[in-house]
Amino acid sequence: MDRLDNLSLIAKLDKENMLKFISAFPEQCRKAHDIGKDCELSRPDRGIDNIVFAGLGGSAIGAHIVSVYLRNELKVPVVVSRNYTLPDFVAENTLLFCSSYSGNTEETLSSFAEGIKKGAFIITMGSGGKLEGLSKKNGFRHVAISPGLPPRAALGYMSIAILAILNRLGFIKDTEKDVTILHSTLTELRDREIGINVLSEKNISKQLAGKLYGKYCIVYGTSDSTEAVAVRWRGQFEENSKSLASSHALPEMNHNEIVGWEFPKNVLRRSEERRVGKECRSRWSPYH
Predict the structure, then answer these.
(1) In terms of C-beta density within 10 A (0-12 exposed, 13-18 middle, 19 or more buried), how is residue 279 classed?
(2) Helix (H, G, I), strand (E, B) or coil at 129
(3) What is the pLDDT confidence band of residue 186, given thresholds at 50, 70 and 90?
(4) Is the pLDDT of residue 143 over 70?
(5) Which of 133, 72, 137, 67 is nearest to 97 (CA)?
(6) First to last CA, the chain
(7) How far is 286 from 288, CA to CA, in rounded Å?
(8) Three-class SS of residue 58?
(9) Where in the chain is the domain with CATH 3.40.50.10490?
């Protein structure tokens, strides 16, 4: 039996129950849309010149994906700010989303405080923590997300809910049909092709996992569509697998990183020489 088909072994290794969270992703997307759709929101009386998403890590990647997905629909500039401070252009005519799944991300709390000073129209998102309390205290709308997940497992909540909110505010068309198709497609993929109960011989996700095991993974996307997906995949390697990875986007990659690929053999050779030398020194050490 392939190890990735051994559910009892996976259960022993999966201390944080990530398999459960990943498997429930289709349902999370459906629920996230309902959360955003049910928010009592109205477009601000003042005009909105730009949209800024403030967040880090798993709380920012959802906004990153949304910004790429809507690049040909939104008529105002969109920026994802992963920092303690906001861009200087943030002002009264900015729609500022402050997203922190835990509600305690220090960079997001700092951006939230700055957003208040700049007079931005603020919406906060998360499962509680300081951000929710401060948001309500200052009279802003807080979008409550279901608690109990690692932030990296809340992608559906931190992305699909935003789509519904932007529709409620009149920035984009209704996404109900798109989310219904998304839920149906993800459910079918999980149950028939890539889910844990699909055996490895027919499961491309398990086959890919086997090929990538023990490797340094580099993920490429395109700046107008899959760049955010590449960043997300890199983050999943790093957080779930505790494995260093990197990502880059085309066509920018063609103008710098591609040149570096001309000489990876030299780097690998030197690394191997150092490793062998270290093993030899350790083997012949009088203290070995």
Answers:
(1) exposed
(2) helix
(3) very high
(4) yes
(5) 67
(6) 39
(7) 6
(8) helix
(9) 13-182
pLDDT in tens, 1-28: 789 999 999 999 998 899 999 999 999 9
Distance CA 250, CA 234 (A): 16
Burial zone of 199 (CB within 10 Å; 0-12 exposed, 13-18 middle, 19+ buried): exposed
Residues 53 and 183 sit within 8 Å (Cβ to Cβ):
no
User: CA 143 to CA 145: how far, in whole Å?
Assistant: 6
Q: Which H helix or E strand runs over 92?
A: none
> CB–CB of 190/36 below 8 Å?
no
Fold of 13-182: Rossmann fold (3.40.50)
pLDDT digits (tens, 9 = 90+) for 37-63: 998 888 888 899 999 999 999 999 999
Give the separation between CA 255 and CA 239, rounded to whole angstroms: 29
Q: Virtual CA dihedral for 244, 236, 161, 68, nearest 10 degrees?
A: 60
